[in-house]
């Protein structure tokens, strides 16, 4: 474990000692306990995979990670439920994901290394040398009039890697990536301030500028662009522009499908939103299709008794209710 983390845990242990005023309090044991919790605890998340808290489940902590899991851990309150995403044969290892899988390979590795101190070598991670995978966080070349994208053609990951244009062959270091992302920071800070103050109109205006700047820097199918459009979808819904929300949601769908497995609950939740938006402002048949896709996934990941799955068993009723709405908002 990194020295910085151990130091932080030592500081926490000292605070606990001062609070408890226990003369026999063992600082070393406390630090060791913090380390164990850090590596073995699970984030308790809701249907949108937003964190609600942290839980320690000793039996579930022995299950290994994969970026191509065959099982998923979901929560019903504090109860952790393990469900199979795919048929698991006798003798097959059950694997779950410890992290958000809607990330690039580099970011998944960074996330795993920071939280669990290992780098994954599953089949998905071994595909990093494929240029198609790297498009998810590829920068535009912009060498002269070149409209190509910078990728790591060496097939290995390093923060000091050299990026080569897939079209003209121009080479740049990863410092170019850092400088490019730094240009977005003032806009992101401003948008964050608007959101903190619930100024959705201001946030929407700023995120439109962020979307344009992100498209200028990255591949249009990149994760960076998708994350901006995810926020824009929510902001358009908050400000009542359901048509614009639907258009953003439609652009997100292929990137979600590219990043996530067929039965991933995050994909199921996205299909649910897409279906409802289509039901209000788009094609009713498409709306029905996406709601059915959402139901098929969430029925596997959350079970038939989950409230959202129960609702999705009646797609026609959902579409009918949306059609009767006066505001046009899902």
Automatic annotation (TrEMBL):
GO cellular component: nucleus
Name the record gives this protein: Histone-lysine N-methyltransferase ASHR1
A Pfam family annotated for this UniProt entry: SET
Location of the SET domain: 1-99
Classification via SUPFAM superfamilies: SET domain (SSF82199), TPR-like (SSF48452)
